[in-house]
Amino acid sequence: MAQKTALIVYAHQSPVSFNAAARDVAVEALTKQGYKVLVSDLYAMSFKSSATADDIKGDLKNPEHFVYNEEMMAAWQDGRLSDDVSEEQHKLEQAELVIFQFPLYWFSVPAIMKGWIDRVLTQGFAFTLQKMYDNGIFKDKKAILSFTTGATESMFLADAVHGDINVLLWPLQNGVLRFCGFQVLAPQIFWCPAHSPASVRSQMLEAWRERLHGVFAEKPLSFAPTEYFDL
Ligand code: FMN
């Protein structure tokens, strides 16, 4: 049987950060289960975050009016995407599980990871107007947002200062992941590791390791089925 593959898309500048430790735990736990683990270390790769015409090799279809998604779709079809985008797409194709590991920046992913989303999940490759949500291209793949926060859990409640964490996860979990068909597993949230004692940080990492041992049996989060809507 072919070896299963997991991809960790990782965004942190420091190899001694909590995020790096969470990545290492995932690499170890998944490798132990026989998975081939690919890591895209975005800062180490100096991954380009801006979606521009440089992502396309050869002539543009319409240089007078550049439309990024249309040019990217045409380039994907013709094998003219830049090498960095193609390489990430190739990793994603192989992966049954994708973990996005990042520190929460402004209620979202860091810009470098948003760049990965903008540039790698091109129309045609990651979705079409017919293939999205329940019928999405990546419906056989699972994805997890695994992230650290600066704030505490009690600050991210519906009646607390930052509001319900699920509200800010909606664009990423529904608008990006589920839109492309991914089965979205529960987010892994490491609350405020920078201000937690070492013992709490170790417990958080151990809980992550423990979770990853059963991760392939986890039931995905439920979203409203596409058939509820007129598309
Ligand atoms: N923490 C939050 O709880 N909410 C935020 O919206 C948020 N935005 C941030 C934006 C920037 C640009 C930076 C640098 C930090 C932000 N933080 C925010 C704090 C980081 O999430 C926190 O420092 C990080 O998760 C700690 O993980 P680390 O120890 O691995 O660096």
Brief sketch in words of this structure:
The chain has one domain (5-54, 83-228): Rossmann fold. It has helices spanning 18-32, 68-78, 83-94, 111-120, 165-178, 198-213; strands at 5-10, 36-41, 97-103, 142-148, 183-184, 188-190.
Question: What can you tell me about this protein's structure?
Answer:
The chain is of the alpha/beta class and 231 residues long. It has a single domain, classed as 3-Layer(aba) Sandwich (Rossmann fold). The protein contains six helices and six strands, in the order E-H-E-H-H-E-H-E-H-E-E-H. Strands 1, 2, 3, 4, 5 and 6 form a six-stranded parallel sheet that branches. The site of flavin mononucleotide has 15 residues, from helix 1.
The CATH topology label is Rossmann fold
The best one-word shape is globular
List unreliable stretches of 5+ residues.
none
Question: What profile does the largest beta sheet have?
Answer: 6 strands, parallel
- Helix content estimate: 25-40%
Q: In CATH terms, what is the architecture?
A: 3-Layer(aba) Sandwich
Number of helices: 6
Strand content: 5-15%
Q: Which descriptors would you attach to this protein?
A:
6-stranded parallel sheet, 13% strand, Rossmann fold, 231 residues, binds flavin mononucleotide
List the helices and strands and how they pair.
Blueprint: E1 5-10, H1 18-32, E2 36-41, H2 68-78, H3 83-94, E3 97-103, H4 111-120, E4 142-148, H5 165-178, E5 183-184, E6 188-190, H6 198-213
Parallel strand pairs: 1-2, 1-3, 3-4, 4-5, 4-6
Helix pairs in contact: 1-6
